[in-house]
Amino acid sequence: MQPVDGLHLAAGPVRGRAAREDRELVAEHLDLEAGRLGFPVLDDAQIADVLRRARRIAVIGASADPGRPSHGVLVGLIAAGYDVVPVNPSEDRIEGLSCFPTLGAAVEATGPFDIVDVFRRRAACPEHAREAVATGARCFWLQLGLVSREAARIAHEGGLAVVMDRCTEIELGRIGRG
Question: What are the chain's domains?
């Protein structure tokens, strides 16, 4: 494997915008791991507390496809006893639950959320952070593999707790829901 624009990628050469986006993503992951984001993200104990206190979770990017991670997490959160509301403009129902096109529509119909759990492209995350702030969520959660300094900053400045690059279902399994 040869370095391309400073990155070692198994998928082949990456150049231009894709390479820049990959470098930004790697840098944000490294900053997250080193605690250099400029604002706090939750640690293991705080994540455990958020999951134990939460009752309602919006899953943005929920999928009806059982092969998608967002579907598996949604089902796992339901099984753990959470009130889960799927958000996806392309779906009507997922696992028998009404699916809403936006977080705002979900809040209007069902009330506010403790956690807004995001399964979307990194570029979409800042807008979802703005929605989470505007709708009064308590925690903005970016799923495993997702890091967005901008989205986290927006959520933090809006008073929300921030979790990035963690899976709600994995963390729930780690801590239990006592």
Answer: 44-175 (3.40.50.720)
Q: What is the 3-state secondary structure (H, E, C) of the chain?
A: CCEECCEECCCCCCCHHHHHHHHHHHHHHHHHHHCCCCCCCCCHHHHHHHHHHCCEEEEECCCCCCCCHHHHHHHHHHHCCCEEEEECCCCCEECCEECECCHHHHHHHHCCCCEEEECCCHHHHHHHHHHHHHCCCCEEEECCCCCCHHHHHHHHHCCCEEECCCCHHHHHHHHCCC
Q: Distance (Å, rounded) from C-alpha 61 to C-alpha 19?
A: 25
CA 80 to chain centre: 18
Q: What is the pLDDT of residue 41?
A: 73
97-107: average pLDDT? 97
pTM of the predicted model, to two decimals? 0.80
Residue 90 to residue 92: CA distance in whole angstroms: 7
